[in-house]
């Protein structure tokens, strides 16, 4: 354990001049020691500005992804093939909303407000995961999203449970538990379809063909073109590089695809014994960057829907703010009455 007095260097008294510089050095040393010792950085701890900014960037993008990610599946709630499937899908979409809320709360501990983050999203200035800019034309897409998208999310997010920033790592523990259910329900939808009619099997395979490559893109650009990875790994926010996680994901998919009886749509996919990794075809990176630039198949629809939902919810925010104001007024007058 690092002694608590080490942390006190970032306390509220702000000296000026050379003393302040000395204290900054001391605070930096404490921060470095906490990271090296695998200790968590907590909201009240001193942290370098760049660490704070990186976390706000990553956590808010992650939160936006969860919120925008409700749309491709929300789209199927009324059309799910049975009451049971409807109930499961509705619960899953609600889980994603919850994940967004934990993550917005974690980001708020770093000094950004929920309103600021929401504004960045609806103004189209914030990134969210590329994966949610693809359409969901058939019921089998619900299976492919669960299996591939939630599967990729688990691979990427389990290591984030050990992220050096406390509120982020702790939020990820619960998120990952729920994502495991999501992945299994997607697998089960595909398994059911693959045991059905030829048309159902074809529908499952088509959905896998559509989601396989975008799910590999979720891990981000290749390591040699990932500007943030090295620093985020040094700060122990990220624990593995984008390519390492992509490899892990493919290792997980190959045996599961065999059980399902689906083909992964990459003719070059094979285990390379010399390199000790999966050899795969080149990912369509121009497509990935087009989606990031806002020109994916569903980018504008996703943002339009988000803006409309925000506008439609204005009355709820106003009512909640007014209720909070009245509550505060009431407790103040009670307090004043007690004092008088
Ligand atoms: N979609 C959109 N943007 C992406 C992206 C993707 N798939 N992959 C990378 N990017 C962006 C990065 O955000 C970064 O943008 P910025 O510098 O302008 O902010 C840029 O491309 C360069 O990429 P880097 O590899 O340098 O960026 P990172 O080091 O941040 O790594 C990441 C990217 C792996 C996505 C990392 O941020 C991360 O692990 N984030 C947390 C997990 C997350 O956000 N997942 C999103 C999916 S949520 C989800 O799956 C919900 C579930 O319900 C299914």
Automatic annotation (TrEMBL):
Domain of life: Bacteria
Pfam families per UniProt: PaaA_PaaC
PANTHER family, A to Z: 1,2-PHENYLACETYL-COA EPOXIDASE, SUBUNIT A, PHENYLACETIC ACID DEGRADATION PROTEIN PAA
Gene designation per UniProt: paaA
Gene3D superfamilies: 1.20.1260.10
InterPro entries for this protein: Aromatic_CoA_ox/epox, Ferritin-like, Ferritin-like_SF, PaaA, PaaA_PaaC
Name of this chain's protein: 1,2-phenylacetyl-CoA epoxidase subunit A
Organism: Microbacterium pumilum
